[in-house]
Amino acid sequence: MPNIKSAEKRVKIIEKKTAENKSVKSKISTYIKKFKVAVENKDVAVAEVAYNDVASLLDKAASSNVIHQNSADRRKAHFSKMLDDLKKESK
User: Fold this and answer.
1) Which pLDDT tens digit goes with each residue over 53-63?
2) How far apart are CA 9 and CA 14, in angstroms?
């Protein structure tokens, strides 16, 4: 336990930030699962919408330092390739 008042405040701030970061990461995971389900079902229209949602969430998370920018870019590239492969299959 912190003994100094400013340290007590920092503990509260860290708890709040941790909860926010966990919420954002959970939301990203949920949308990634929706995207992967759409790809598995070979539903191009739903997959495109889901990809746009995932890409947007990843960019927002990276801009607010919840995840690293390179991690967001790598994930977006991976999902983009999945979407492109799905589009090629459906033709």
Assistant:
1) 999 999 999 99
2) 9
